[in-house]
Amino acid sequence: MSTKPITSGARRSKGFKRTATLLQPRIKSVGSTRGFAVSRLLTHWADIVGADIARAARPVDVKYGKAGLGATLTLLVKGAEAPMIEMQKDRIRDTVNACYGYNAIQKVRLTQTAASGFAEPAQAPAPAQPDPSAEALAKASQTAADVENTELRQALEALGARVLTQQKLK
User: Fold this and answer.
1) At 17, is the pLDDT very low, low, confident or very high (cuts 50, 70, 90)?
2) Cα separation of 148 and 156, whole Å?
3) Could you tell me which residue, 6 or 49, shows the higher pLDDT?
4) What integer pLDDT is reported at residue 32 of this predicted model?
């Protein structure tokens, strides 16, 4: 009888694997569906175009033309920073083509939106707080009179007056 352990046929490596080796096949498959032949463009975007541009814009997809000559790189840009990125499109195209190793990108197109998606719905402004009454100020001042530290006493008086005013409103 053999004491050999049962294995699934696949050879297991000993020790830890680098994260890059685990993620590379997944990044490549996701990148190829978006047209990114070189996944390095996605993984090293800040290194390729610089930190300032990377903060303002991120690559979304690459669309190849009908004839297969030249592609269009679409960047997602925050609306307020779009004019600055617009002025740097030629530089971005040149640095991305240097990453590819040939003139793969012919045009850079900008899509203006919030980087996290659609904007959150606007919230109504908080209602204005009424000023504390003289009665509330006097009561708060009387309560905090034993505090020796002047700044702390004044802060407690202001807080107490606001609390007493809020209780009166309810």
Assistant:
1) low
2) 12
3) 49
4) 47
Q: Residue 103: which residues within 8 A CB-CB, separation 6 or more?
A: 70, 97
Residues 6+ apart with CB under 8 A from 16: none
State both tokens at 36: 């990114």
Cβ of 49: how many Cβ atoms within 10 Å? 23
Q: Distance between CA atoms of 86 and 106, rounded to whole angstroms?
A: 15
DSSP state letter for 9 = S
Nearest Cα to 128, choosing from 92, 97, 165?
165
**Unique residue bearing structure tokens 């045009």:** 107
Neighbours of 153 (CB within 10 A): 15
Could you give the CA distance from residue 108 to residue 23 in angstroms, rounded to a whole number? 27
Q: How far are the Cα atoms of 5, 90, 92, 151 from residue 16, in angstroms, in the given order?
A: 21, 42, 37, 57
- Beta-ladder partners of 105: 71
Q: State pLDDT tens for residues 56-113.
A: 888 888 777 776 667 888 888 887 888 999 999 999 999 888 877 778 788 889 988 7
The torsion angles phi and psi of 59, rounded to 5 degrees, stand at -70, 140
Query: Higher model confidence: residue 40 or residue 107?
Result: 107
Give the 3-state secondary structure of residue 61: strand
Conformational region of residue 39, where left means phi above 0, alpha means psi within -120 to 50, and beta covers everything else: alpha
